[in-house]
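Follow-up to my earlier ticket, as requested here are the two runs.
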Amino acid sequence: MLRDKNLIPLSHQHQHALALCVRIDRASPIPSEDLAAWESEFARLVQTEIQFHFAAEEAVVFPAACGFAEMIPLVDELVADHAWLRGHFAAAPKGSMSADDLQALAERLSAHIRKEERQLFERLQALMSAEDLALLGAKLDEALKGSTQVCAVPANATRLRPAR
């Protein structure tokens, strides 16, 4: 299903996070000398986008979804994912992650994003009226004002290298 224009800002942020997750997966196993650069890149994404993204979903999207009884179990899962992810995001700026920790975090974030895109957004678009989606979009625009829309260029250590 084509993404409703009111959910596109969240989908764009999902794309940014998925791109990092794919790069981590392709770079794995991450050499220990590059781990700090990967943690720094993850921490930057959390600081510039993900923290605002999660807050917007929790303040705007999840309450709207809970207006439909069938969506409540999915929202409960997504809220639990946010809690797990936040707890693990906190390790990135501290430089306390292992390569396996980083890989697990990327896998969990990727699965979470796909659940939101394929289940949450698809059902919301099917259940909500165009007017309700427009109202949701306006609230999201306000909630996402603090996020930074930047094109993050990978550091040398986090650039994917050609296969040998």
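Run two:
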Amino acid sequence: MLRNYFPVRLFFFAALFLAGSLLAADTDYSSLNAKALTVKLPTDVQWKGANAAGIEQIVITGDPTKPGLYVVLARWYAYHNSHPHFHPNDRFITVLSGTWWVNTGRKYDPDGMKPVPAGSVVTHFANEVHYDGAKEGDAVIEIIGMGPATATPAEDK
């Protein structure tokens, strides 16, 4: 029963998001107290261009290179994956759009990667080896963690 409920719920939230996006596009936010909150619409979020690994990142808050809480949006371009690595702290990832692909272990096996659809939440546990990326299409994820956000290579070749 619950399995059949999920697609209906996902469709409902997608429709709600689309309606909210259309409504927000015509909204004037200038009357809001900027000390209380800020609003960044999708058109306000400027991606800067992918790095050599095929990832663009936007820091929402904090500084991933320093100790403390950070939130980052990351866009994985299609056909780009990381290789086995680990992080010193837990990281909490929400897939916002596209399909993100994940796998665990020190042996890089891109054919064994598992799809994680939009709306899913993934936890990278501290010091545990994993790798991830995008296959046929781009994927946008939100990463929440405690810095510094280092990655230690851990691939067996």
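The only thing I checked on run two: Residues 85 and 154 are 5 Å apart (CA to CA). Let me know what else you need.
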